[in-house]
Design goal:
The complex is a heterotrimer of chains A (276), B (413) and C (315).
Chain A lengths: L4 H30 L18 H8 L1 H34 L5 H13 L6 H11 L5 H26 L2 H9 L4 H30 L2 H5 L9 H5 L12 H36 L1
Chain B lengths: L1 H18 L6 E7 L6 H12 L4 E7 L4 H12 L8 E5 L3 H6 L3 E2 L3 H8 L4 H7 E2 L2 E2 L1 E7 L2 E5 L10 H13 L5 E3 L6 H13 L16 H14 L13 H9 L3 E6 L3 H8 L1 H4 L2 E4 L15 E8 L5 H11 L2 H11 L12 H6 L3 H9 L10 H11 L11 H12 L7
Chain C lengths: L2 H8 L14 H35 L2 E2 L9 E2 L3 H7 L2 H34 L5 H13 L2 H12 L20 H28 L4 H9 L4 H29 L3 H6 L9 H11 L3 H26 L11
Antiparallel strand pairs in C: 1-2
Helix pairs in contact in C: 2-12, 3-12, 4-7, 4-9, 5-7, 7-9, 8-9, 9-12, 11-12
Classes of the chains: A mainly alpha (276), B alpha/beta (413), C mainly alpha (315).
Amino acid sequence: MNATPKQRLGWSTANVVVVLIAAIPVLWLVSLSFKDPSTITDGSYYPHKWTWDNYRGIFDQPLFTHALVNSIAIALISTFLGVALGAMAAYAIARLNFPGKRLLVASALLIAMFPPISLVNPMFNLWRTLGIFDTWVGLIIPYMTFSLPLSIYTLSAFFREIPWELERAAALDGATPIQAFRRVIIPLAAPGVFTTAILVFLYCWNDFVFAISLTSTNNARTVPAALAFFTGASQFEQPTGSIAAAAVVITIPVVIVVLLFQRRIVAGLTAGAVKG
Amino acid sequence: MGIVLAALALAVAAGCGGGQSSSGPVTLNWYIFPEFSGAFVKSAAACSQASNGAYQIKIQTLPNAADGQRQQMVRRLAADDSSLDILGLDVTWTPEFAEAGWITPWPQDLAQKIQNGTLQTMLDTATWNGKLYSAPFNTNTQLLWYRKDLVPNPPKTWKQMISMATELSKQGKPHYIEIQGAQYEGYTVWFNTLVASAGGQIVSDDGQKVTLNQSAVQALDTIHQLANSPAVDPSIGNQMEDQTRLQFEAGRAAFELNYPYVYPSAKADVPDIFKNMAWTVYPTVKEGVPTHVTIGGIDLAVGAFSQHKQQAFDAIQCLRSPQNEIRNAVLGGLPPVLESVYSDPKFQKAYPMWQAIFTTLKQASVRPKTPAYQSVSLQISYTLSPPTSVSAKDLGTLKSRIQDAIDSKGLVP
Amino acid sequence: MRLGAVADAGTAVGTGRPGRRPITERARAERRLAWLLCAPAVAVMALVAIYPIVYAIYLSFQRYDLRFPDSKSWIGVDNYTTILSSTDLWWQAFGVTVLITVVSVAIELVLGMAVAIVMHRAIFGRGIIRTAVLVPYGIVTVAAAFSWQYAWTPGTGYLAGLLSSTAAPLTHQWQAIAIIILAEVWKTTPFMALLLLAGLSLVPEELLRAAKVDGATAWQRFWRVMVPVMKPAILVALLFRTLDAFRIFDNIYVLTQGSQNTRSVSILDYDQLFTALNLGVGSAMSVLIFLATALIAFAYIKGFGAAAPGQELER
């Protein structure tokens, strides 16, 4: 792409602005996490008195470390399963004709739309009866279920855009359906799949309602729920520093996951450009 | 093959029979808020040991905020969960839990033991329909904290306090009166204190009817006066206990109405402000009439579906023994419910303000006792928010909304 | 080219139903494959979600207050009338919710598109930019909300300090709503941007180049080339974002707890269910929220027409 120096400057500035806007509130959290409790109210963006106490504090008790492990594992497993199931259904919806398609799509949306807060009580009762209350499975199941609509919609939107001729061209070239699928469809579907994966992962990661209702101990409690258990130095003190420190710590795995996945999007994009 | 089967059967029988019956301690699950200093952990361990193998107390932590604690327990009790043995209830929950059949009343003989030597107002919070449903565990109440460098003689009434603060504002000195006015439970606490201090109460003793009258008008007037004076903090509509503490520590306030936890906090955070920090009893509404500050705290109850009620009753009595009460007070900053502890030198040393706390507790008031308390509280804080909009005209609206809440009619805010 | 049609005519095998076109062997195989592919997803959704949803709908016709368990009874649509006749709570919350939804989604669409284009044309550090842009969405919502709450608290926060010294924006309805919208936009623009970026990636470069050669301006290239190809992606982004925005909860809960009439319908529902323990009214409110979101979804799908997933495919 040939851009004039002026254009390059323009785009570079835009890049910097975007990064800054995203970063400033995050850096504020970082700053809060390093602030000494006595300076929390000084209103300044930078800490005048630095301390590692907040970080030390959150790792002192097993609550946070367990929550971190739970969050990562549950989110990864739910994402993998949810995207796999969603991709299969989305492929069928986008590229095959069958009766009941509209019904399926509509019911999937219905499930995504019903407010989860009124579903947690019956789910709690059911989970206790089945013995999966306060387990990983107990959270993976609702996360999978309620992210399926998003998966299906997003993936079918992408699968639709993949040109039909490619499959047939590959068949004409002598490739088996499986080969055609692997060599032609998958690279083109990659941006959609990884986009969906990131969105589903973050949905599971951010969820609070199910996490607080379907867990009760460190066995399965995830980070958003664990934040509700953080204490300040007394019953009334808000654990500002601890929450800020926890927020910073839990952002790191997200940054890593995103960094890893976003490369796949780029790879998918270049593959698409070569093919198209 | 037969020998293997027999061995298996023996192993299974040994495994089944060994755990329960008479041998082996019973596990009592104690659902309580996360106590940062570890005082509860020590108490639980001490009591488990003292039981000589009768029971092991296992602490199950609940969320930090009272609402979260209530949600967790209610959800499980509504599902008849038998694993809830000992419950740490906020003082306002006893009528609700009792009416719903989620907690067990104390047997007469044990109730007598609990009642001996416990603060009367705390017992009031633990009693419903004439029966004792829970055992007071710790308590809390607010004092008036002030800057003695700015205020040589502390005020006795709200009127005095407001005029002192106004005076200070004219002199350009720190002058805010810090009080919790956000739309939440703490605001209801403030309103309840004012109504009680004016001689009235919000709801009848049986919890069926709203009883706001002239005393409520005085309460509303007081809020109105404060909110329209230079003494009010502009963020009053968004302030809870911690925000008011931070404002005082930042040196912007001359007065603060808050719980004793602000004292050690100021000592650690702001030694300069701390050396000028003094305390006294909460100001009254009417000159000469003692103030009745709303009481807070935790009562311990036995779950209605617990399989080990006898052990739970025993454990609770141990958890609130004088020794453990002192430990909770000194380590955890939680004032005790046993009157005898207030004369203990160890306690007095850790609490220089013990006299003011004790006086306040002896004449404290309770919040409306009704199973629908949560809704009542929401309606109160909703109607009176923000403090700057409050006036005596709100009385009618307040009365009808509270009555609806008691009758579980309509929506809650 | 309708390959399928040619095949149909040549190899019809029996009739599926009276009066209908005969189902070809190929079509039947296609259906089987489709059902097989959909089966796991359908099974999961049906088994897990159907019981709680049906139970919630059932409860909505009951008077059921957990605090008074003896008074459980069938009351038909009474819960619904209670809710719909409440102007100062339900309709107030509804209005606030609609306002927040419309404003935040509109802003996010524009900003998201802009950010997607910037990410697409990243000059340096593509990975860094894309990661940086996604971090707001990746931070746990309540933690981000705390960040904003502290920032706007007078004295403690750096943003409150930019206003006058006595300004407490979170205590006034309209200012608080503006802050809530800001927090929402900051948090979920990456969601939009990501979906739009993936949609952007499907726009063929040669089409754009050809348009440029034909003399189209950047604006024309955007509207005539990019947007039409991106339509499905835009629909998905808008649809899900609107549905989520309508059910906003976390940000409001942390910033204002819904006080000063900044509550959304979800917060109001939460109060009925978890604070008042009034499961009857709470479930009815959930059904109403669900119906409102269903209306929104319906409007989008009708509006976008053929771009919706599940529409008849042209082959």
